[in-house]
Amino acid sequence: MRPKMAAIVLAFVLSVALTGCASLSQHPLVKPADALINEEVGPAYEKYVIDDTRLSENDKALRLKTVRLFRELIENIKNSK
Asked: N or C: which end of the chain has fewer CB within 10 A?
């Protein structure tokens, strides 16, 4: 995972984990993070990665996996009680 993306994911996870929300799905950062990964930045970043001929297949796979894992994290938090 790239250092900048890793820092963003870590900041989000720590923010969610350290707040006193009764349910993680109600955390105020969940909705913006969901929009970011599913509507705003995520799809454009995935397209960029797929289309970038300078990236190796390994680099592409790693970047796409990062997006997929962040998307899964958000979905898991949204579905938590």
From this structure: C
